[in-house]
Amino acid sequence: MRFGAFVAPFHSPKGNPTLQLRRDIELAVHLDELGFDEIWYGEHHSGAYETIASPELMIAAAGERTTRIRFGTGVNSVPYHHPYILADRIMQLDHMTRGRVMLGIGPGQLPSDAFMMGIDPRDQRDMMVEAAEVMLPLLRGDAVSRTTSWFTVDNARLQLTPYNPEGIEVAVASMASPAGATLAGRLGLSMLSLSATDARGFDALDSNWGVRERVGADNGHPADRSRWRVVASMHLAETREQARAEVEHGILDLCGYMEGMSKSKLPFATSPGAALDHWMTNGLPVFGVPTVGTPDDAIATIQRLVEKTGGFGSFLFLANNCATWEATKRSYALFAETVIPAVRDMNAGRVASIDYVGDNAGTFFGAMQDATREAIAKYRPK
């Protein structure tokens, strides 16, 4: 299993936007040093909290500061871009990062973004499909011609081919509905299961993968669980009490996002503790039910997701930014130090080694004591 972070992001409008964006870049550096595998940056244009407008810019900056971690656009809102231009930008990033880029696609999450661009939200999913059908052959190096209601490509082709022979991985966002899984199966895409611990999202995990398998088989694109990513909210500390206190630090700011969107007060957001209790019991839209606790709690959450899904390729933190920056970095470090080796069974050889030594202690240490006595006798002065 691989591990990473999904960074929408969710930044309080009380903070310094420049420093918040810098920390989103620094997070990639931190995860790279800790041995995480991936980081995905989102695209949003309104609402005050999700302040990354261009995941490509974030990847370009973070790519220069890292050496091994892979980057995904999580996700590009495809209807907002001409598909030829978006494919060309991703291809350039692929070379700038020496093959570490993945393209995540979605229809666009915020209706306010679409309205500002004169796009009818009812058209966005069809627009995403039309664009994906053009971008995939372009990224493979093919020439494409197509005219739709919102774009034209005329014998279009990209100047560059992918950095790696296997090409650029493309993933589609999937939540409760089977729409993303259906597109993934039809076009042979990877899948990003957002809101995996939301009640509806969790219930749909196995059924959506079943759709991916069936549609993929019908279209010549066998399903590959290693290309399935599951996203959930998580914050860890040495104790559950400490983890709670660290998330309570900024949870009311996170609630402020939902309150601002609806212009109504959330009834449970009366105090940090009450808001966290509600989140951990009932969940929040998109964020689902978080794991706020210790590494053991994180392992239990991942095991629960594995049991529900039958297995997947990557677990991604949904970065919520409720804790301070220092506490957030400690949470990722604690995960890397304790959860990753447990899930991957990285220390099986070490456990087997100490068991072997212990099981044969009498033989080994008895022989060593015999050797020591013989050496003393041999070299004792006459």
From TrEMBL:
Keywords: Flavoprotein, Monooxygenase, Oxidoreductase. The keyword S-adenosyl-L-methionine does not apply. GO terms for molecular function: monooxygenase activity; oxidoreductase activity, acting on paired donors, with incorporation or reduction of molecular oxygen. Residues 1-308 form the Luciferase-like domain. The keyword Mitochondrion does not apply. One of its GO terms (cellular component) is cytosol. Transmembrane segments: none annotated. This is Unannotated protein. The lineage of its organism: unclassified sequences, metagenomes, ecological metagenomes.
